[in-house]
Predict the structure.
Amino acid sequence: MHTMDTNNVVDADDQTAHLTPQLIIAKKRQNDEPHTAAEISWFIQQFMKGYVKDYQMTAWLMAICLNGMTNEETAALTEAMVQSGEVMDWSLWESLPAIPHKVDKHSTGGVGDKVSLILAPLVASFGLVVPMMAGRGLGHTGGTIDKLEAIPGYRTQYSAKEFTELLLTEIDDKSGGEGPVGVAIVSPSQNICPADKRMYALRDVTGTVRSLALQTSSIMSKKIAERPDSLVLDVKFGKGSFNSNIEESIELAKSMIQTGELCGIQTTAFITRMDSVLGYTVGNWLEVRECIEIMRMGESDFLTTSCWQRSSDLIEVTLALAGQMLVQGGKATTLNQGIIMSKENLLNGKAWKRFKEMVRIQGGDLTCVEKYPDAKYSAKVYSNQSGWIALVDSMEIGLIGVLLGAGRKTVEESVDFSSGVEFHVSPGMHVCDGDHLATIYTERSTVLENAVQRVRSAFSFSNNGEMVVLPPLVTHFLTKDSIEPFDDNVLRRR
């Protein structure tokens, strides 16, 4: 039987006819000159065909981890990963009188990060298209898809073609609008960036996950496969982030911006703090419920005041991202104007109406809002001291969420939609000994006692007994040309 010599695979293209896996690996190992886009594309193509073996890909990934990549190499790798699978085709939208601007957002992940649930319908309520692919939770961070699947019937699996058609679904006449819904949040199909999935599996077991170039290409490939016109990034740092210090997050943001721009997509980024939980809930349905409360807060003065008190950090991050998305989508001329416009649509119910439309077209049933089943077991957490709260350790709370069943340790595990933690106080507040700090919900009675102790221990108090002045939540704004400190005064309630 004839066996193909995979060490001497060639391509008919003149630019790649001389290439072999060893040549590609050696070039990156020696790092005398950067790869060409053709070389990277060839290597990824041959890997997906099975001609480049896992051990050869692993050697190349290690060489990248040790020697890095230029911005151009990283962009070429990202595009090659995109081209390994389905790419969104927007040709169906050409029949519209005017093709709306397509804008998306990506967050590097955190604890209680439920921004997308509000942000996507909020931005779409201005007539922009928000084609959002999101992920599931793993480890201490939650996942947008898990949260949305807490809504009964909500479908998240679509092919690229189905996703495009879904966004074109007409708004229900009863909602008082017209035109396409223009927003959906789905899970990437198995055919989106399959090279990334295979490469990440190798990186995960060979210690190459932390490479800046490989991180960038893995994150950006899924977003670029959507073929948006522009992209806004939320790059986090702090206790509950994958990057603990701000310098690492800034470098990641710069790399992702350059990759997006080189791939033809206008890209900007905010650097945001993730030391404490974002919002007042952690857990799938609990977070959906909090987002619904925020989108309905304009229905009464009481709700408005309550939401700003309990969820001000979540609202502020959402407004910053929404404001910039409106700028990039041509709906606002400045970030400040975009934030003001976003606040208006949050308070006047337009974001809530668009959220309901999104849930409707994806098969979800929101009649459950008032009667969602509680978790089987619950416990209250009380303070054992008085003082000013400085921090609620988001990493620890995320891990407690996994213990309760709200998160997962491995991708194969399922999650409990009703489990999680609801906080009744937040950093910057003063509490007395015996005050109610939080309520824990779970389907696992055996973990309650341990969870109560750990949640209480996650609270840090001011050392000197003085009032805590919280550091800014949004610290920097980056474009391809600049990095500037962010003036968070524009986010304060008017």
About this structure: Residues 1-12 have pLDDT under 50 and may be disordered. The two ends are 77 Å apart (CA to CA). The chain has 16 helices and 14 strands. The longest helix spans residues 301-328.
